Amino acid sequence: MSDVALTGGLAADGTPEPIALPPLRDDLELLEGPRSFDGAPTWTIHDPVRNRYFRLGHAAFQLLSRWPLGEGRRAIAHVNANTTLQVGEGELERLLRFLEHNDLIADSSPSAARAFAERRARQRQHWSAWLLKNYLFVRIPLVRPDRLLGRLLPFARPFFGRGFLLASLLAATLGLALAVRQWDAFVHTFLHFLTWEGALYYAVALFFAKVLHELGHAFAAKMNGCRVPTMGVAFLVLWPVLYTDVTDAWRLSSRRERLRIGAAGMGSELILAAWATLAWSFLPDGPLRSACFLLATVTWVLTLVINLNPFLRFDGYYLLSDWLGVQNLQERGFALGRWRLREALFGLGLPKPEQLGRALERRLIVYAYATWIWRFFLFLAIALLVYHLFFKLLGLFLMVVELAWFIGRPLWNEAKVWWELRRHMRPTLNLAITLLLLAGLVAVLAVPWQTSVRAPALIEARQAMVVFPPGSARLEAVLVTEGEAVPAGAPLYRLSNPQLAQDLRLAELRLASLQHEILRRSVSRTGTAEVGVLEGRLAETLADLRGLRAQAARLDIAAPTAGILTDVPRHLRPGRWLSGDAALGRIVDPAGLRITAYVTAERLARLSPDSEATVYPDDPLRAPIHARVVEIEAVDVSSLDDPWLSADHGGPIAVQRDARDRPVPLEPVYRVHLRADSAAGAPDQKLMGVARIEGEAESLLARAWRTAASVIVRESGF
Cβ contacts of residue 543 below 8 Å, gap of 6+? Predict the structure, then answer.
């Protein structure tokens, strides 16, 4: 049958030509289906060659039941005369196209063969297109388990009984209650497995849970009289997942039975989690208790987070589809969502894709919009994942392909539909609002209205000196208080060192002894020859004594410059021992102010010396500081000198640690030095803030392009 004209034309005498009904394939099965969302009966066509099922509505079934009449208009008239339905040639045309498109017609004529070949040629994909579409999901059947499942079904049937389900519910309640009472131990066990060895154990537990999940689907299908032709593994973004082919559930006319099959996998995992959680609470520490913990956590989390997710074609999606009674939930929801979006934007007045109840229509539209949002972030995450899974050049290529194919292509296709619908557009309020919003969006994105550059800034005193002890010493007294203004040379701390005092006392004793010995020998006739040696030792002792006295003098720490004492450690108490690298505070000059901003490379070109800036300190009690750019460093920062600027210390700059544990910025940043216009007081300690520097105007689009280009160049390694 060809695609040319499916409805009859007019004969030479003006009478309508007959519409020949093509023969259907003899091997097709017609089965009773479940009730639709509006309560109407449905039927199912089974194609045994491809093991595919097709759902028919009431009107299509009534037309097919008159197929032996051989002529389309007679079938239509018979349906209208003998049923409450009123069908027309449009319904027959859609049915004929449906049968032809799905190869359900047994037509061996040359024209039908040519049409079949043309249709297959249009559907055939180039290998590159197939690879781009399917590299994220590949399904590999491994076993044909139907016969083995039939033998094992008597052993599995008790686990689907009401008694076992009630016992499992009780086990889940008791196990969760006991786990909450031991929550600290439960969390500690989880942290214990956050290792590579623990990840291997989790993988084994996940495999066991997923095998049980698929067996749950398989046995539930067998209990309802369905075949399970294959079980195997599918690779989702190169991650292996098991699957079970329960397509035969389409034979079932009971929605409850279909829901039971769809929920059996998650039910099996939740039952496993319930008993494992309960066993964990009673078992002693050891391998068996650890195994129960692994099974409990992996099944609770994955079942509730992934399998119940209705936005992916996992169990949650099919359960929602069967619960709503809407087959092809995503396709029909997307069609309604696109129609509602076009009507809201343009007010076209086009008919709905299908007529549903108002409540169901709203549910499908909300579901469609939620799925689009979910898919956007999911495909974005997958794009980043495939980028990191491969070497840079291939990863970058796959990331761009992922974004273009799964995000860009649907948007482009919808834009093409909007362009084709322009001839249906009429002046309406919706269209006027849309055009105004579009113009505003273009203005916001394309007009270079952004003149300022925002950058993290560090505000500190221009002159600040850190006070250190001269070495290991004991604190005897703190002579000033934190925040006190001190002049240069003012005493700050008094320290002592018993070892130094002892060395000093011994040196003084050696000096006195040498002086006495020299005096004694100088008046002796026999000792004058040794006086020179003693005088050399005396000089050495005097040098040692001067050094020890200098060290002792440094134990009285004075202010190196005038300023305010800040950052005094809280643990400073008389009697504490201090190490030589322990800072005792800082002397800050409040009259000078130093401001350093850190600007990324793509924004640096917009700045120039003498640009105005406003710095907003993180301290809400400090007023904004008006400043100007005085210097832009030409070399980017190799590592951050101030640790609180780095993201791993809560700062604004993303870093990674090098071999020497220095914070190295992930992207190039440059120091921009600012000078305050007014005599703003310096903070007592370093203070973070945000500098808003006026620069060359730039649009959001130009900024996004520059950022993307710099990221691509940097990450590709060019």
Answer: none
* Cα 619 from Cα 178, distance rounded (Å): 47
pLDDT tens digits, 54-81: 888 888 888 888 888 888 888 888 888 8
pLDDT beyond 70 at 529 = no
SS3 32: strand
Q: Tell me the pLDDT tens digit for each residue of 136-185.
A: 567 788 899 999 999 999 999 998 888 999 999 999 899 888 888 877 77
CA 349-351-353 angle, to 5 degrees, is 135
The architecture of the domain spanning 464-585 is Beta Barrel (2.40)
Angstrom distance (rounded) from CA 459 to CA 465: 15
Q: Is the dihedral angle over the CA atoms 222, 228, 232, 235 positive or is it negative? A: negative
The three-state DSSP-derived secondary structure of 646-707 is EHHHCCCECEEECCCCCEEECCCEEEEEEEECCCCCCCCCCEEEEEEEEEEEECHHHHHHHH
Domain boundaries, the chain: 29-124, 129-325, 340-446, 464-585, 589-716
The dihedrals phi and psi of 478, each to the nearest 5 degrees, come to: -105, 115
Averaged pLDDT score across all residues of the chain: 81
Torsion over CA of 106, 111, 115 and 116, rounded to 10 degrees?
40
218 has a pLDDT exceeding 50: yes
Give, in order, the Cα–Cα distances in Å from 601 to each of 101, 564, 630. Answer: 56, 37, 18
Q: Which token pair is 164?
A: 């076992």
Looking at domain 589-716, its CATH class is mainly beta
Distance, in Å, from the CA atom of 29 to the CA atom of 54, rounded to the nearest integer, reads 10
Instruction: Give the whole-angstrom CA distance, residue 379 versus residue 62.
Output: 43
User: Distance from CA of residue 554 to its chain's centroid?
Assistant: 57
Question: 606-643: per-residue pLDDT in tens?
Answer: 888 888 899 999 888 888 888 889 899 988 888 887 77
